[in-house]
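Predict structure. Input: UPF0225 protein E0H26_00390, 139 residues.
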Amino acid sequence: MARQDSRGSARVDPIGACPCGRGLPYPDCCGRLHSGAAQAPTAEALMRSRYAAFAVGDSDYLLRTWHTSTRPARLPLDPGQRWTGLEVVATEQGGLFDSTGTVEFRAHYREGTQTGTMTERSRFVRADGRWVYLDVDQP
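Output follows.
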């Protein structure tokens, strides 16, 4: 999956499965979104591609797909954290004809010898015709 090059940037094994968990090769799945060759058709597809971007260390993609009202100025990623699996728990709206959507998921990671799970309910909106991440839905 992802490897660090000499500058600390992540690279993806071109024949490996995409980190998003859909079972497709990275170039045919989220790699197309990361490179700008395609756009996510649904909120869930965007969430999966953002998870994959965390897994491969693509902070530029994460910032490009973040709503301008909530986007940080920069996004340093922890090179010691490895994202190891994704489970989509639930989706609400976020389809082809929706303007908003939420996706609840569990993202599994490893940091050193420790493992953990992050659970989040993310909100997405359409901005200028494309899905973008807005924020975390706080209960």
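The longest strand covers residues 114-127.
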